[in-house]
Design goal:
Blueprint (H helix, E strand, L loop, with lengths): L1 H7 L11 H21 L12 H24 L27 E4 L2 E5 L17 E5 L2 E4 L5 H9 L11 H10 L7 E2 L23 E2 L2 E2 L13 E3 L4 E3 L10 H11 L3 E2 L3 H8 L12 H4 L34 E7 L24 E5 L7 H4 L6 E4 L6 E2 L3 E2 L8 E3 L3 E2 L3 E2 L15 E3 L10 H12 L3 H17 L6 E5 L5 H6 L5 E6 L2 H13 L1 E4 L3 E4 L9 E5 L10 E6 L8 H5 L2 H4 E12 L4 H8 L3 E9 L2 E8 L2
Parallel strand pairs: 11-14, 16-19, 20-21, 20-25, 21-24, 25-26
Antiparallel strand pairs: 1-4, 2-3, 4-15, 5-8, 6-7, 8-9, 10-15, 11-12, 12-13, 17-18, 22-23, 26-28, 27-28
């Protein structure tokens, strides 16, 4: 996921794991907080985001997500590194010997409403809330999810060798990974796993070798009767042709292109139309989580997918609208109207509102809890990612009711990638919507030019005045000068100038364009911008003392700094989520400086951080209010 690739290698690969003693102490402190909530917080129903209990449910539901994502990772491991748990049951490979005929069903035109009501009595992630009403023109959709047997026709026709079936992004993935078939199919050609890192050269598709009467990659008593076999989480089994194929978005799109010019994936609105769910305000049993429906393969009913014709259809005739595998849809991940990020986890959804993450609907056999297995669940991954995900196909002569995320996101080391419409028919005037992550507005070139001019050009006198003030408070309060943390470093000028005072400086920002510019200036000492302008730092600056990092949050590595400067509270989605972490970033005798716009008051800042900090000084500089804080004893 491009937005967190930088976080996987944050701190330049210098991350050091904490000691066992530190981990145990941290766990002890967390346990105390959790027990305090359980024993002392009022338990009033329904539990809302304002309740302390909401944070506990957030933790439990997030752990449920990890159950599912971890099962996919286990599925990618070498087969001899895993052991099937006791009572782990796979679904039957088929229901009958009759071939599954995947006919198309017509869904009439209609209005669809979706989004979770704020008063619905179950936990929800921030992206689920809000309300959308759309008109969905008539369309046809396949009765079943596309099966392994159907997808075999595409593979056998050379689908992975033919560029014309793939989007540009999808073909780059195919050629980079050397994909020949779905990643959880097993052949005898030695295909690489393509799972990355230490597994990049591992092969699920080892040639069959029989030793001591047992063939590698098989279960006892089974024979290799086909070219392809199938990797479950814990075993390699004979291909279950009637199970849905597990693929990523690129593969699903290629299949649709191969099938014909009129075929595509459903949209989020169309998926809701196929469900035919009742209004959520009428009865909580409209949600499968509350029904405990035994005719849906959710919540580990089986430890695998199931035949697509195993369970009853919806009233409109569709099978596995919920459960079995997630369904890729055409919509980009974005917040619904009225979206608000929670300060408890403000980057759960927001970094993915970038037009590069595509929605999945309906849950899988490994989806559990009140968010994943819910009718309201909205999850998304990069289009090359694997989950327990499949698809069904749609045909329509009408514009698709789709919501695409129109935003320019700068990826470090890559730049801005094209993001063309991938639908045969859609209303290009209506389908593009702005990202509900307002932080992405700063990724455009014009904002970068304005920032560079503010820091290095026409606004440099003002910037230098503020830096002089920061240096004065360091002296005034005898602040130690081992390390400084600059949160919201922008294009890096202030971070670089602080290196005159501090032995080391860490400058962080969420904006890729800003961090990239800071790194370029750090490397070359200058950067041309705008119409003949140049950003430049003095030759006397030791730029090597500064580390620039792109982060969407404050991880554990960002800690124990003598001086912490925060300058971007007016351009982040949730200032609270950054402010509540500051006490973890600073030494007990350190100095915190907040530079904010005039919309902030001392009272509002005190409400946010007064639990940990006391204000010792404040001043106004033009349109800025600068406050100085120290940790409370």
């Amino acid at each position: 996921m491009s937005w967190d690739d930088t976080e996987n290698y944050r701190m330049g690969g210098s991350y050091k794991w904490p000691s066992l003693a530190d981990v145990l102490e941290y766990r002890r402190q967390v346990k105390e907080v959790v027990i305090d909530v359980i024993e002392n917080a009022p338990l009033e129903f329904p539990i809302t985001p304002q309740s302390p209990w909401w944070s506990l449910f957030m933790g439990m539901e997030h752990e449920r997500i990890h159950l599912e994502t971890s099962s996919v990772l286990i599925r990618q491991l070498p087969i001899d590194h895993v052991q099937k748990p006791t009572n782990w049951i796979y679904a039957p490979p088929k229901i009958s010997d009759a071939a599954v005929r995947n006919e198309m069903i017509t869904v009439p035109e209609g209005t669809v409403r979706f989004g979770k009501p704020v008063d619905f009595p179950s936990y929800g992630w921030d992206n689920e809330y809000g309300q959308v009403e759309m008109n969905a023109p008539e369309f046809e959709a396949s009765k079943y999810l596309v099966t392994n047997r159907e997808f075999f026709e595409f593979v056998n026709a050379g689908g992975y060798k033919n560029k014309q079936y793939w989007t540009d992004e999808g073909w780059k993935w195919v050629t980079y990974c050397g994909a020949n078939h779905p990643t959880f199919w097993v052949c005898q050609e030695g295909c690489k796993s393509r799972c990355g890192a230490a597994l990049s050269s591992y092969s699920h598709c080892l040639p069959r070798v029989v030793e001591n009467g047992h063939a590698n990659g098989s279960m006892n008593g089974e024979t290799n009767t086909t070219k392809y076999r199938y990797r479950t989480v814990y075993d390699v089994i004979d291909m279950p042709w009637d199970w849905p194929v597990d693929i990523n978005y690129h593969e699903a799109k290629a299949f649709c292109k191969w099938k014909g010019p009129d075929y595509r994936l459903p949209t989020e609105a169309e998926h809701h139309r196929m469900r035919g769910d009742p209004d959520p305000s009428t009865d909580i049993l409209c949600d499968p989580v509350f029904r405990k429906d035994t005719n849906i393969n959710l919540q580990f009913k089986y430890g695998s997918s199931n035949p697509v014709n195993m369970f009853p259809a919806t009233p409109l005739g569709f099978h596995d609208i919920y459960g079995n595998v997630w369904e890729w849809v055409e919509d980009h991940f974005n917040g619904l109207p009225g979206f608000e990020a929670t300060y408890l986890y403000n980057d759960f959804s927001t970094p993915c509102f970038d037009g590069r993450h595509t929605l999945m609907m309906g849950g899988s056999w490994a989806s559990t809890g009140s968010s994943e297995a819910s009718r309201f669940s909205r999850y998304a991954f990069r289009r090359h990612f694997f989950q327990h995900a499949g698809f069904r196909v749609v045909k329509s002569a009408n514009p698709a009711p789709v919501r695409l995320c129109g935003c320019e996101v700068y990826v470090l080391g890559v730049g801005v990638e094209d993001n063309p419409v991938q639908l045969p028919i859609c209303d290009k005037e209506k389908c593009w919507l702005p990202s509900t992550n307002g932080q992405f507005q700063y990724e455009v070139e014009s904002n970068l030019v304005n920032l560079l001019d503010e820091e290095y050009g026409g606004g440099i006198q003002k910037t230098n005045s503020q830096i002089a003030y920061y240096e004065s408070v360091v002296q005034k309060y005898n602040c130690k000068t081992s390390s400084a943390l600059h949160i919201g470093c922008g294009a890096g000028y202030t971070s670089l100038m602080l290196s005159k005072t501090f032995e080391s400086v860490v400058g962080i920002d969420y904006c890729g364009r800003y961090i990239n510019s800071a790194m370029q200036i750090q490397k070359d000492g200058r950067l041309k911008f705008g119409s003949g302008k140049e950003a430049k730092i003095p030759d006397t600056i030791d730029a090597k003392k500064v580390t620039f990092i792109q982060l969407t949050w404050l991880p554990n590595e960002i800690e124990n700094h003598d001086f912490v400067l925060v300058e971007f509270l007016d351009r982040v989605i949730s200032p609270t989520s950054w402010l509540v972490k500051l006490w973890e970033c600073i030494t007990t005798d350190g100095l915190l400086v907040l530079s904010t716009s005039s919309k902030w008051t001392i009272d509002s800042l005190t409400r946010e951080i007064g639990k940990w900090f006391k204000m010792v000084e404040n001043t106004a500089q033009r349109d800025k209010m600068i406050t100085v804080w120290k940790m409370k004893n």
